Amino acid sequence: MKPTTRERLLEAAVTLTYRDGVGIGVEALCKAAGVSKRSLYQLFESKGELLAASLGERASAFAAGLLPAADDGRSPRERILYVFDQLEEQAGAPDFQGCRYLAVQIELKDQTHPASRVAHEIKANLTAFFRSEAERGGASNPDLLARQLILVFDGASARAGIGADNLTGLIAPTVTTLLDAAGVH
Amino acid sequence: MKPTTRERLLEAAVTLTYRDGVGIGVEALCKAAGVSKRSLYQLFESKGELLAASLGERASAFAAGLLPAADDGRSPRERILYVFDQLEEQAGAPDFQGCRYLAVQIELKDQTHPASRVAHEIKANLTAFFRSEAERGGASNPDLLARQLILVFDGASARAGIGADNLTGLIAPTVTTLLDAAGVH
After folding, report:
1. Do A105 and B21 touch (CB under 8 A)?
2. Cα B43 to Cα B24: distance, rounded to the nearest angstrom
3. pLDDT band at A25; cut points 50, 70, 90
4. How many Å is the Cα radius of gyration of chain B?
């Protein structure tokens, strides 16, 4: 199946933005997608809308790459640790530059930008997963634990993304300590 | 004392890059500094070199705003918590956009860029502070604790910078839990 013009634009946006940042030009996006500017603006109101749509398109792959299957029989503690194992593995890839949703929000510096809103929403879903597992696992303060876990997720992926830390021997002990302190055994 | 051309350029670079990102143009920098492009290129080889110099110039203010005075009589545990109190306070400012050194590295996506190198070095100094206090405080694994603390620092400042968390009631319990687990009392 040949990808549609829309699909090629979304793929180019997601790939080039991750590699080069949100400042990537419309010309470069169109060139990578093999699409005219006219076609881009027929499908998307602006580069910002294309970027927002490309992040949204990626959301299910993001969740699938991190979250355990629903009702997989694992305990909440194991399901939380699973996410961080996935992150550690993904961070080992040579082209890993950290969490794309955090990067987009840091780069845009505008929480009202459509792409910032989409990115915020996707990460809020990950926080909600942590919150729900924390509660099921009997955390003394599920809200606090969820905030701690998404903080560790963002801190770890950012530091791995800039090459400041390879995460080896770091995430599992950190998350384990927080789970223990919250009483999630 | 009137600031020199160099000082005005450094100030413009540090301010505009923080507000708008590393993609800020040379024209905008020169305009904000009230300086000609010719003057900029007489003082700095490139925009990248100006950016690197502006980050380096800021390093002592960054340290002064976060670190406790040397030999202030506080315990290592208190000295570590002091840094995070400062971060929490700074994160409450309306123009807070997270740690500028993390942002620059995420935005540049090039660890060999002169500004990335400077930013990396400045954060490595903060990690070294944590490492040294962890050791003085008798941490079971000072290297691990230092990596955990800088991870929390980056995660917390990034999440506050994008408006995803206000950090209230988050950092102190998180750092306390990590200090306790490391045996730093």
Report:
1. no
2. 18
3. very high
4. 18
Torsion sign across C-alpha atoms B107, B111, B117, B120:
positive
Nearest to A154 among B103, B111, B155 (CB): B155
> Does a structural domain hold residue B11?
no
Q: What is the mean pLDDT of residues B20-44?
A: 97
In a domain, B2, yes or no: no
Percent of chain A, pLDDT > 70? 100
Could you tell me if A107 lies within 8 Å of chain B, comparing CB atoms?
yes
pLDDT in tens, A33-75: 999 999 999 999 999 999 999 999 999 999 999 999 998 999 9
Q: What's the structural domain count of chain B?
A: 1
Query: pLDDT value at position B1?
Result: 82
A104 close to B (CB below 8 A): no
Q: What is the pLDDT of residues A113-154, one digit of tens each?
A: 999 999 999 999 999 999 999 999 999 999 999 999 999 999
Among B151, B153, B175, which would you mutate to test the A interface (most chain A Cβ atoms within 10 Å of its Cβ)?
A: B151
With contact defined as beta carbons under 8 Å apart, do B67 and B87 qualify? no
User: Quick check: B106 and A105 CB within 8 A?
Assistant: no
Residue A100's nearest CA partner among A28, A44, A158 is A158
Domain-located, residue B144: yes
Within 8 A by CB and 6+ apart from A3, the residues are A11
Domain holding B130, by residue range, is 48-182
How much is the ipTM here? 0.97
| Domain assignment present for B116 | yes
Kindly report the pTM of this predicted structure: 0.97
Q: What is the CATH number of the domain that holds B150?
A: 1.10.357.10
Instruction: Give the pair of three-digit tokens for residue B129.
Output: 């502070």
Q: Could you tell me which chain B residue has the CA closest to the CA of A147? A: B170
- A with B: how many residue pairs have Cβ under 8 Å apart? 117
Q: Is B151 on the interface with A (CB under 8 A)?
A: yes
Give how far A21 is from chain B: nearest CA, Å.
Answer: 6
